[in-house]
Design goal:
Elements: E1 11-22, E2 25-36, E3 40-44, H1 51-59, E4 66-71, E5 74-75, E6 86-89, H2 101-110, H3 116-129, H4 145-157, E7 163-167, H5 175-192, E8 195-199, H6 203-209, E9 212-217, E10 220-225, H7 227-232, H8 237-242, E11 247-255, E12 260-264, E13 272-275, E14 285-290, E15 296-298, E16 307-318, E17 322-328, E18 334-340, E19 355-360, E20 366-368
Parallel strand pairs: 3-8, 3-9, 6-7, 7-8
Antiparallel strand pairs: 1-2, 1-4, 4-5, 9-10, 11-12, 11-14, 12-13, 14-20, 15-19, 16-17, 16-19, 17-18
Helix pairs in contact: 2-3, 2-4, 3-4
Bound molecules: adenosine-5'-triphosphate (ATP).
């Protein structure tokens, strides 16, 4: 249903049945996953699901209890952290306060075996890549938060690692700067061709920067796919609910033609119609997941909608570009519908207690078994 691996892509990292236990506790549970060369990969999931543990195993700070992790075809278990072509950038940036921007970037190179004149060239290249040329002589306290973040990035990339691990890299930046920096990160990732793996609590951030996203729960990967695929075709109620806003309607399925199902739900009078490539048998319990922006709201029953249900407006949230309506349906279920505020709303189109129709097409929702 969701492609786990793309045969055309070359894996840089392979987790092969990796389990990590801390005492009796299983932090990573028999996890198999490929991360491709040159991709920007995001790990998403609730606190404690094992994201940091995966990063720490890649960096070499933890070893798997079972299974193998490969980097470019080699088992990395015998390779100590400082010999891995892997670098990790922390949220705190950990810049040296007494060293200039230039020296912060050069620091790791000086400790390696790079010739002196090559170090100068490499630092210059990194300063250019991160647009920090003008700030080379300044100390970390003499530059802005966003610039400090770029110094940390330049320093992490200076030794040209194959893999860069980013743990909440933008956590210290305010919302506006964070957005701008996301695009910069994407640009730098593309220019260097380094594989980036990011851990972030901000799902919008993951969806923005990543080419693929893994949604995790309790040490397992539940779904891995492109952001669009994860959003439009979640493989479970867990993923649908974790990414973005969603309405879940429980019911039982009845096949009514090719990839079409009638769903009996709380309102027995009006079964819903859903399209699904995933097969369901007659009477099988199912969950219909429909995103709020795919549900239209109108005063009259729309003539040609696959699904139209009458309800009552309970709540309205005006969010500037859109408004979200909470509509109570006959069975007592509350469904969120969104309308774009493309014109100036001087007067609300609908108000509390209004009777309205919500409608959506058969293909707007995703039918899920659990
Ligand atoms: P967060 O988003 O909060 O950072 P996470 O997804 O990164 O969470 P991990 O830090 O990987 O989660 O932790 C996964 C689980 O393993 C947690 O339940 C954590 O308590 C446990 N854990 C992690 N490190 C250790 C350790 N050294 N000893 C015991 N348990 C640990």
């Amino acid at each position: 249903f969701a492609p786990w691996n793309d045969p055309d892509e070359k894996p840089l990292i392979r987790f092969k049945s990796v389990t990590k236990k801390f005492g009796d506790f299983t932090a990573i549970d028999d996890l198999t996953l490929d991360i491709y060369e040159k991709e920007f990969f995001a790990l998403l999931g609730p606190s404690g699901c094992g994201k940091t543990t995966m990063m720490r195993m890649l960096a070499g700070f933890e070893a798997p209890t079972r299974g193998v992790i490969e980097l470019a075809g080699q088992d990395i278990a015998p390779v100590p952290p400082n010999k891995r072509a892997v670098n990790m950038m922390f949220q705190s940036y950990a810049l040296f306060p007494h060293l200039s921007v230039y020296e912060n970037i050069a620091f790791g190179l000086r400790r390696g075996d790079m010739p002196k004149h090559d170090i100068g060239d490499r630092v210059a290249e990194m300063l250019k890549l991160t647009r920090l040329e003008k700030f080379a002589a300044r100390k970390p306290h003499q530059i802005s938060g966003g610039q400090r973040q770029r110094v940390a990035l330049a320093r992490s990339l200076a030794k040209a690692p194959k893999l860069l691990l980013l743990d909440e890299p933008l956590g210290a930046l305010d919302a506006k700067l964070r957005q701008a920096t996301q695009f910069e990160l994407m640009d730098i990732q593309e220019k260097t061709g380094t594989t980036f793996v990011i851990v972030t609590h901000d799902q919008e951030e993951a969806m923005t920067v990543a080419s693929r996203v893994a949604v995790m729960d309790e040490g397992r990967v539940i779904q891995v796919a492109t952001p669009e695929h994860i959003y439009e075709m979640p493989n479970s109620v867990y993923v649908a609910d974790f990414i973005g806003d969603v309405n879940i309607i429980e019911g039982t399925a009845k096949p009514v033609g090719s990839e079409r199902y009638e769903i009996s739900w709380a309102d027995n009078k009006a079964p819903l119609i859903a399209a699904s490539e995933r097969p369901f048998s007659e009477g099988q319990n199912c969950h219909l997941a429909v995103r709020p922006e795919k549900i239209a709201i109108s005063a009259e029953r729309p003539a040609d909608a696959d699904n139209a249900v009458e309800g009552k407006v309970l709540d309205i949230a005006y969010l500037g570009n859109i408004s979200t309506y909470h509509v109570e349906l006959p069975g007592g279920q509350i469904v969120k519908a969104q309308a774009a505020n493309t014109r100036r709303v001087s007067r609300r189109t609908f108000t509390w207690e209004d009777t309205v129709w919500i409608s959506w097409t058969a293909t707007a929702g995703v039918l899920l078994p659990q």
